[in-house]
Write a structure and sequence with these properties.
Strand order of the largest sheet: 3-4-7-9-8-13-14-12-11-10
CATH class: Alpha Beta
Shape: globular
Helix content: 25-40%
Oligomer: single chain
CATH architecture: 2-Layer Sandwich
Largest sheet: 10 strands, antiparallel
Strand content: 15-25%
CATH superfamily: HIT-like
Length: about 325
């Protein structure tokens, strides 16, 4: 029987359409296949095709393993002066921010799931290093870290890469999570994410894998089929405060989870993103940073746009079972 589930953080409702529940093989999708590309601007030897690097991690032979460069066509520019104006009831500001690309490998054909674990760890260290640098700019309030893998997920360059966009405002979806967490904390004096972690670990039906440092789960009110969250077990509101053992555990869990998704869903396009606290705020007792992975298996249509509800044709308990059974 279909049911409505309420997200415990934001209060958003989701329809879990279980009549019948859709299995992994039911989704129509295009497999993401890597092809060689001698003109790829992200490949080793083509460094002159990107803007000058901001950060790089190199081996003993001084060959880079990871590079961070400004986006050649940025959504926002750090050189702009922050200017807020109003026209009656309308507000606007100049396009201040930063838009950077994290090139994850020298090799064109290597995906995130195929990278050595240490290289995945480097990706999260690069995320952390860039946030710590950008938060020194008092004009910036938020840094969104994300990856588009596959054409259906919005990737315009095939070579494996992630991105960050630093903003002078806090995104509405993050603010909704922060506000929801604050309401819960004011009522119960506990973090809603920490309570979620305890309940999911105890219940087990939506847990996909776990380590001493992180828990990977299908959220109770999953918006999309096979939506997956990765959360640190210890409370922390800011990703950039992650310590070495947490980043190591996160890299292992992320690589293992992507491999499971590829095995079960036959190499789908996907997005992942990190929701963290605003960079100019101190530690928040009511917010808990986390990583969300969203395979692109369905499309948002009229009902979702009109109602703000999502329809998920695969119950998260079944999705978690498929992924648990996929092995490492």
């Amino acid at each position: 029987m279909p049911e409505l589930r309420k997200d415990p953080v934001t209060g958003r409702w989701v329809i879990i359409a279980t009549d019948p529940a859709r299995r992994p093989s039911d989704f129509i999708r295009s497999r993401v296949v890597s092809k060689s590309n001698g003109d790829c601007p992200f490949c080793a030897g083509q460094e002159n095709q990107t803007p000058p690097e901001i950060l790089s991690y190199r081996d003993q032979a001084n060959q880079w393993n990871l590079r961070v460069v400004p986006n050649k066509f940025p959504a926002l520019r750090v050189e702009e002066m922050l200017d807020r104006t109003g026209e009656g009831l309308y507000d606007r500001m100049t396009g201040v921010g930063a838009h950077e690309v994290i090139i994850e490998s020298r090799e064109h054909k290597v995906s995130l799931a195929q990278l050595p674990e240490k290289r995945v760890e480097d990706l999260f260290w690069a995320f952390r290093d860039r946030i710590l640098d950008l938060k020194r700019d008092s004009r910036l309030r938020y840094v969104l870290l994300f990856k588009n893998h596959g054409e259906a997920a919005g990737a315009s360059v095939e070579h494996s890469h992630s991105q960050l966009i630093a903003l002078p405002v806090v995104p509405i979806q993050v603010q909704e999570e922060i506000d929801g967490g604050r309401r819960y904390y004011e009522f119960k004096e506990r973090c809603v994410f920490c309570d979620m972690l305890r309940q999911e670990a105890s219940h087990g039906a939506r847990v996909i894998l776990e380590t001493d440092e992180v828990l990977v789960l299908a959220p109770y009110a999953a918006r999309f089929p096979f939506e997956t969250w990765v959360l640190p077990r210890a409370h922390s509101s800011h990703f950039e405060s992650a310590h070495a053992s947490l980043i190591q555990s996160l890299a292992w869990a992320m690589r293992a989870t992507i491999r499971k998704l590829e095995r079960v869903l036959e190499y789908p396009s996907y997005n992942f993103l990190i929701h963290t606290a605003p960079i100019q705020e101190g530690p928040l007792p009511h917010y808990h940073w986390h990583l969300e992975i969203i395979p692109r298996l369905t499309r948002v249509a009229g009902f979702e746009w009109g109602a703000g509800f999502y329809i998920n044709p695969t119950p998260p308990e079944e999705a978690a079972q498929f992924l648990r059974d996929a092995g490492l």
